[in-house]
Amino acid sequence: MRSRTVASKAFDSSTAATIFLGMSWPALSVRLLLRTIVHPPLALDLLRVAWRFRSRDWYRRPPFLPIPDRTYIAWRMHTAYGDHRAVPPAHDIERYARWTRHTP
User: Is residue 3 assigned to a domain?
Assistant: First the structure.
């Protein structure tokens, strides 16, 4: 019985997201940057995705950058990975970015 308790504590949702997805947002950014060096057309696809995810009226609020809203990203991670704190694997982002090339 004790092993079940330890196992359930060891694999709560935040730990599972870290273990199975295995990186942070800055690490994901670096990994995607490295992939764009190897595959330059991917850079344009990733810029297209970043533009799609930008906050509306981003130019009216500091820091005046077209970055996504945190609540929107949390919702997307929850619907895709079951945890709002999840960080997607780089290959998922790359696959989605390439898909957007053919989708208006």
Answer: no
